[in-house]
Amino acid sequence: MITEVARAKLNLALHIRARRPDGYHELETLFAFVADGDRLTLSAAEADSFEIVGPFAVALAGESDNLVLRALGAFRRRYGVDAPLAIRLDKRLPVASGIGGGSADAAAALRALARHFDRAFDTPDMLQCGLELGSDVPACLLSRTVRGSGRGETLVPLDGPAGMPVLLVHPGTALSTAAVFAGWRGIDHGPLPDGSVLEVAQRGRNDLQPPAQTLAPVIGECLDLMQRQDGAVLTRMSGSGATCFSLYETAAARNTAAAAIAAARPDWWLLETELV
Ligand code: C5P
C-alpha cells in the first residue's frame, strides 16, 4: 500500500497581473506547503474502488467528478495503464478554503500512481498532466516552496524557511475560486518583489483578499483577530480564501495565539503546523 500526504498549500503572496482572454488570470505567486494535509492511500485490488473518510468527507459526498478520480483517469489515459486500484482519501482539511484541497488531493493521487507504476512524478509530462486537472496541481505535485507564474504552472523552486511555525485559521465559509477571481477589479498593483522567501512574502500581497472579503466579511474579522495576537511575522489570507495563516518565529508564540483564537471563536477551524 502506498500513502501520500496531500500537503496544504499556502500562497505566501499572490499578485494578479492581468485577466486573460481564456478566462484565467496571469499571476505571480509564492507557494509554500505545510507538514499536514489530507492522506491518500492506494493499493492494487480486484476491482476499482474509491472511498472518502475523515472529518471533512461529508463535504464531498455525492460529488461524481472528484479530482482524485479525474487524476486517475488522466494518468491511465496518458500512460496506458488500467490495473484495478483501491484508493482511499482521508479528508482532514476543510474544502473550498484556499489551501489546495482538491488540487493537493489530485497531486497526491498522481504521486501515488507514479510510485505504484514506477515512474518519476516531477517530469514535465507529469506536470502537464497535473496542469490539465487544475492550475495549482503542478505546484502541489512538487509540494515545496516555489515561485509560480502564468496560471500558476511556471515554477521556480526556492529555498524556503522550512520548519517555520504556522497557524491556519478557517472562519467557516466556503468560497468559489472562480467567484473570487471574478471580483478582482482589474488593477495591476505590480509584480512580486525580490528578496528572500520571507522578504517577498512580507513585502507582497494577496490580490484576492479584497474580493474574498467582499463575498465573506468574516475574513476581515479573522485577519483582525489573528493580527491582534503577539509574535506573528506575517498574517494573510491564502489563495482565494477563506483560510488565513500566520507565520511565527517560535512554536510557543504560535501555540499561545492558537489557544487565544480557539477560545474567542470555538466555531472556527484551526491547525497548528509548520512549513516544509
Ligand atoms: O485551474 P482551476 O480549475 O483550479 O481554477 C479554478 C478557477 O479559478 C478557474 O475556473 C478560474 O475561474 C479561476 N482561476 C483564474 N486564474 C488562475 C487560476 C484560476 O481565473 N490563474
From TrEMBL:
Keywords: ATP-binding, Isoprene biosynthesis, Kinase, Nucleotide-binding, Transferase. The keyword NADP does not apply. The keyword Phosphoprotein does not apply. It catalyses: 4-CDP-2-C-methyl-D-erythritol + ATP = 4-CDP-2-C-methyl-D-erythritol 2-phosphate + ADP + H(+). One of its GO terms (molecular function) is 4-(cytidine 5'-diphospho)-2-C-methyl-D-erythritol kinase activity. The active site is at residues 9, 136. Gene3D superfamilies: 3.30.230.10, GHMP kinase, C-terminal domain. PANTHER family: 4-DIPHOSPHOCYTIDYL-2-C-METHYL-D-ERYTHRITOL KINASE, CHLOROPLASTIC (PTHR43527:SF2). NCBIfam families: ispE, PRK14608.1. This is 4-diphosphocytidyl-2-C-methyl-D-erythritol kinase. It comes from Stakelama saccharophila. The lineage of its organism: Bacteria, Pseudomonadati, Pseudomonadota, Alphaproteobacteria, Sphingomonadales.
